[in-house]
Amino acid sequence: MDSGKRSAPTAHATTDTDPQETAEWVESIDGVLSAGGPGRASELLARMRERIEDAGGEPSPSHPSSIVTDYVNTIPASADARYPGDEAAERRYRAWIRWNAAVMVHRAQHPSVGGVGGHIATYAGAATIYETGFNHFFRGKNHPGGGDHVFFQGHASPGMYARSFVEGRLSEEHLDGFRQEKSRAGHGLPSYPHPRLLPDYWEFPTVSMGIGPMNAIYQAQSNRYLQARGITDTSDQHVWAFLGDGEMDEPESRGMLQLAANDGLDNLTFVINCNLQRLDGPVRGNAKIMQELEGFFRGAGWNVIKVVWGREWDDLLARDHDRALVDLMNGTPDGDFQTYKAESGAFVRDHFFGRDPRTAKLVEDYSDDQIWNLRRGGHDYRKMFSAYQAAMAHRGQPTVILVKTVKGYKLGPSFEGRMASHQMKKMTLQDLSEFRDLLRIPISDAELGKDVYRPPYYRPESGSSELEYMLERRRALGGAVPERRSKYTQISLPDAKAYELAKKGSGAQQAATTMAFARILREILRDTNMGHRVVPIIPDEARTFGMDAYFPTAKIYNPRGHTYMSVDRELLLAYKESATGQILHVGINEAGAVAAFTAAGTAYATHGEPLIPVYVFYSMFGFQRTGDSFWAAADQMTRGFVVGATAGRTTLMGEGLQHGDGHSPLLASTNPAVVSYDAAYGYELAHIVRAGFERMYGGEHPDPNVMYYLTVYNEPISQPAEPEGVDAEGILRGMHRVAPATAGTIPAQVLASGVAVPWAIEAQRMLAEEWDVAADVWSVTSWSELRRDAIDADEAVLYGREAREPYVTQKLTEGTGGPVVAVSDYMRAVQDQIAPFVPQRFLSLGADGFGFSDTRAAARRFFRIDVESIVVRTLEALALDGAVSADVPARAAEQYRLQDVTAGRTGNAGGDA
């Protein structure tokens, strides 16, 4: 054989000990295929495998796994569905959309714009995938069933904009506003699907790789949950997620597949665009990503449909009686397939078909052009239609459709199949001319040549038969897609009685703020007007958080119900599952919990029926572990409560480094849609939770699209009753005075949050009795809200507003005066957020560094945030101001043995870790 050619693949070849018997078996299977089809043949093979396993045998490791099929279409040509559309009309306007999508990105690189980027190649390769859906499957909001939920691949957004332009939803001015949202205000288009930036258009943010697949799964689950809970009928809604093969390397992309299979989410279809290349190179150069994904999804319990080849291959495969072509397909790695599409028909003849004399003979009568036009399946709308229809008809499992495409398809040799196509934003005049000719766009050379940066868009005049057909298809399917609506059923919020218990305090007992919150939530769940809309989300820590009390009444959602005998069935707080359960118990799965939170917290928009998610988690495993998902939740305008339980660096006795949370409020402060609170007492939580409901779901706040992040602790303390005349406004805006100074003559102010407030109050007593210091104590419920208000005030003149004093400045001038010391169970940077806006000297204390295992008292002494450390730090501030002698702080530190970790006494031993 020539050195330039390879022998036929032998990856699956074995020595046949009895070829005659093998031939008879193959003949028998051929008979079954002819009479009963592939399904019946698969049934027989499954039974045979069972018999072999019963006899103690195993499948030979030299054969491919039974969960991976040949590298051909799952649906054979004989079973392809009849295509119901007007193929000629669809082909014409698909060309218009392809043209406009590419031109939009190209025009955005005009020198006058500055080159804002964009992606041409992704949509070019996926146009048929999307258009088959738009023309025949994606149901809009006006559909009687409520409409589908479509997660578009982020880099394909130009295609969606281009279609909307042809439909008349967007103008030419909009397309020219691509990636220029502020400079072309009113007509700017965001780069990717960003609901917050285009709130009437995009529903789901997807361009943060891996979050789209995960959120789509939980959206499908949420749809079923709404149905099971009797809130709305979602039985005729489908969730579509369009993904990339490179994206499937993200752990989040694959990590939730078992949920979809376990829940039997046949209302969900993944469509994976397998163009075989990442941004920089092949996804699997030496292997086959479609085969890998087929095995992965089928092993996870999904229905798998492969669309590998277009109809042009059907005749070749039908004549491939000895499987030479199939074996060649099976053995050719993706890296080679990519090379073929960047070359020519002659190259494919020599380097693919020419590797085996039998396959070479199959195409001996084909011209090089015919070979070049052997399309991949993702560019054949008939093959795509058959796959979509099969997915919609399948029951009991989610479906994944693996679609083979060429990145940059039809963009010409400079783009098509090239590794650099993802980074290519501009086209030469020759590229544009060839692209126009290929698509048959009626634009003249003169128009094209006027300005190479401004090739014209194309949309036909109203009345065009193709355009009318296109619009009729969308009307028949329920209107425009994508579209987001935010009108929803108004709900009655809990009245004041739901918060009374929390405001009464804990009396003679002690209670952690975690328990105080659990009691508030219990009362809200009991509310007859809206309690059924609350969605508690717990990642396998309900008993730690005191929320196991909800199990017997609210029950845990499981679409399969509770069919086993529970080990704790006789206990009062037995673990109970139900097909109509209210609690989403996601297991040890923080990423999945945020996805569930997002789906529930956007039901007001996706379904017009509000759900109020309450996601309670181990605080360290929230914003640190899943911050990207919370950012996407903010983009999707999710509303709900996020509760970081077991909060703080030192409250978790004995837990250690990875559990000691000293920075979550700081991480949360970076998300503009998160309203963060670090409450000390149950009555503060009551005001905050009530205000959160009113802001998010009361219908009157100008910015309801926020998430409330509440930190709660597991350390029991004496919960005071709400004081008469409490400063409710201060609680909500970020600080209120909980203990005015009553003794001492030297003024100072101590600011504390969360579990540190009782330490500050004890320090106040010591300062007065031992050092004649009169210190006001403030409970800072939100350092970040104080900072946001202060920044808004600080920037007022820059933004043309009237200058004003920050709230934190205003409040501190109302106090006794003197320097300010700020402390919490978090790193100093949390407290330091307000430092520039404090009019007095400002010093802080914080738990900087890694956590460790020890008692609360020892940990707090180590970090110098305990009672005695607050006293010394206050004296230090006073000494710097000249209010006390310079040697006083050092004397106090020695007196309190600050260098001795064993001398710490702040905190108790109660509470679960």
Overview of the structural elements:
- It is an enzyme of class 1 (oxidoreductase).
- This is Pyruvate dehydrogenase E1 component.
- The chain has 913 residues and is α/β, with parallel strands linked by helices.
- The chain has 35 helices and 18 strands.
- The chain starts with 18 loop residues before the first helix and ends in an 18-residue tail after the last helix.
- The N terminus is likely disordered.
Shape: elongated
Mean pLDDT: 92
Helix content: 25-40%
Number of strands: 18
Structural class: alpha/beta
**Strand arrangement, largest sheet?**
9-6-10-11-13-12
Strand content: 5-15%
The Rg value, from CA coordinates, equals 33 Å
Give the count of helical stretches: 35
**Terminus-to-terminus distance:** 71 Å
Weakly predicted, low-confidence segments:
1-14, 59-65
